[in-house]
Amino acid sequence: MSDQNLFIAGPRLKWAPFLSQGRQFVPHRVVDRALKRSFDVSAALTALIILLPLFVMFALAIWAVDGSSPFYRHRRLGRGQKSFGCLKFRTMRIDSQEALARHLSENPAALAEWNLTRKLKDDPRITPIGHVLRKSSLDELPQLVNIIRGEMSFVGPRPIVEEEIEKYGDAASAYFAVRPGLTGAWQISGRSDTTYAERVRLDRQYVESQNFAGDILIILRTIPAVFMVKGSY
């Protein structure tokens, strides 16, 4: 691969520093775009069909906890800064917002952690079945529907909420140039064990150097990363 493409070096993915060379972001080649979208649709449809029994089992297990919908739709920003409903299996209590606000007001350390990463290792909102789904990343399987609808891709930056735009700074334009992904550089580089600044850097480098072959490599590296459950909570 050329110095514009991703390569593997040790436990993390690294990309050539486009910005240090003063280069501007160039959209994918037409062939790469076509391959990426064709793969997304065909692979997502196939996965949905194969995993349908698993979907039903998880949905029933979640519904049995409190009798509420097993699915959760959260507004995220995607390509072109368009808002969409990002789907997940519901892993939180029905009163999750109240539980979070109460927990953060009573725990300064948790508030600092939330402000830094937008995540909590000890999250009072998560249900018992939710812990299992999050640890295994199975809570994100419904995003296969988002992929088919063209709102997401298999590989890309993690979808963000509007409040996170300021954290991206001048890297926001790179984020909004592509579809967010079910997996990506962040997921195979430590996930929540990384800082938010590192996540932004990984997303930016992915966008500036991505190609279809690199996407396949990330997907292959996602499999062991999921089983290792490092940084997953």
UniProtKB/TrEMBL annotation:
Compartment annotation: Cell membrane
Any one biological process term the GO annotation gives: polysaccharide biosynthetic process
Family stated for the protein in its record: Belongs to the bacterial sugar transferase family.
GO CC terms of this entry: plasma membrane
Source superkingdom: Bacteria
Keywords tagged on the record: Cell membrane, Exopolysaccharide synthesis, Membrane, Transferase, Transmembrane, Transmembrane helix
Official protein name in the record: Exopolysaccharide production protein ExoY
A Gene Ontology molecular function term of the record: phosphotransferase activity, for other substituted phosphate groups
TM region(s), chain numbering: 43-65
Primary residence: membrane
InterPro entries listed in its UniProt record: Bact_transf
PANTHER family named among the record's database cross-references: COLANIC BIOSYNTHESIS UDP-GLUCOSE LIPID CARRIER TRANSFERASE, UNDECAPRENYL-PHOSPHATE GALACTOSE PHOSPHOTRANSFERASE
The Bacterial sugar transferase domain, residue ranges: 36-227
